[in-house]
Amino acid sequence: MPKSGKGQTYRHTPAFILLFLARENLYGGALLHKMHNDLPGYRTDGAVIYRSLQELEQEGAVTSYWETDLPGPARKWYQITALGLHKLAGYKDDIEMRKKNFEYFLAAYGEITGQP
After folding, report:
1. Which terminus of the chain has a smaller tally of CB atoms within 10 A, N or C?
2. Does residue 5 lie within any of the structural domains?
3. How far apart are CA 109 and CA 115, in angstroms?
4. 91 in a domain, yes or no?
């Protein structure tokens, strides 16, 4: 069985970030919390989230602003842009193709093993 761990790539982290930001503006910690709650089995850490957010911001897929009016420390909030929505659509197409490939794998595996 393949191992997962530190060498694991987080290929679809930007896709999930854009998906969550398409629903609502979030700061990094809230985004990480939502990902852990809503995506069982998909484990990432704050460093990966913030690095991905930084790359998405440099690409123009997200913008950020500081919220200083709320009690507590200032938080950097992120929102998706039109380019980010376009990238999100591209991720959707990629994930649909991968899903078809996985469905093929599972069906072929079921034929070989007799398992559904």
Report:
1. N
2. no
3. 8
4. yes
Q: Which domain holds residue 47?
A: 13-113
Q: Residues 73-82: pLDDT tens digits? A: 899 999 999 9
With a CB cutoff of 8 Å and minimum separation 6, the contacts of 26 are 20, 34, 77, 78
Specify the CATH number for the domain of residue 50.
Answer: 1.10.10.10
7 in a domain, yes or no?
no
C-beta atoms surrounding 35 within 10 Å = 20
Domains held by the chain: number = 1
pLDDT digits (tens, 9 = 90+) for 30-72: 999 999 999 988 888 899 999 999 999 999 999 999 988 878 8
d(CA 75, CA 96): 34
